[in-house]
Write a structure and sequence with these properties.
Blueprint (H helix, E strand, L loop, with lengths): L12 E8 L2 E10 L2 E9 L7 H19 L4 H8 L7 E3 L4 E3 L2 H12 L10 E2 L3 E2 L8
Length: 137
């Protein structure tokens, strides 16, 4: 397996939120060199999910982050998670049914892993871009 990619001190990220009634899911994806490498997930609204449910979702996100930073391609997760079902709601932003937190994450990973997706970049003061490759450019 590949060596773990070091995490820069600051990385750009995007957050998606899906909430309908008691099914609230928040996914934040951090990007290194334009690729998804860090995942944060939260579930629940109005105390409808147990602490253990939230812990499992956090463990899932950490595991995926570890894999992504070791070179596992997003498609490996998309193929495994898409269609996992424990609920059924509709997301107006994605224009798709959401069947579970894992399914929601798979749908978002599919978007950010597509060739058409342009990952966010970090611009520091004086329009200096953070160099995640440490090449000095």
């Amino acid at each position: 397996m590949n060596t773990k990619l070091p995490r820069p001190p600051t990385i750009p990220s995007l957050t998606w939120f899906h909430g309908t009634g008691s099914h609230a899911i928040q996914v934040t994806i951090g990007f290194i060199d334009g690729e998804p490498k860090e995942i944060f997930m939260r579930t629940g609204a109005n105390h409808d999910h147990t602490t253990c449910d939230r812990a499992w979702v956090e463990a899932l996100a950490r595991s995926i982050s570890t894999g992504l930073r070791h070179g596992v391609p997003p498609d490996a997760y998309i193929d495994q998670f898409q269609g996992i079902s424990c609920m059924s709601t509709f997301d107006a932003t994605l224009q798709r049914a959401i069947r579970s937190p894992a399914d929601y994450l798979a749908q978002i990973l599919k978007i950010v892993a597509s060739p058409e997706f342009i990952a966010p970049t970090i611009i520091l003061e004086d329009n200096i871009h953070y160099d995640t490759n440490n090449t000095g450019e």
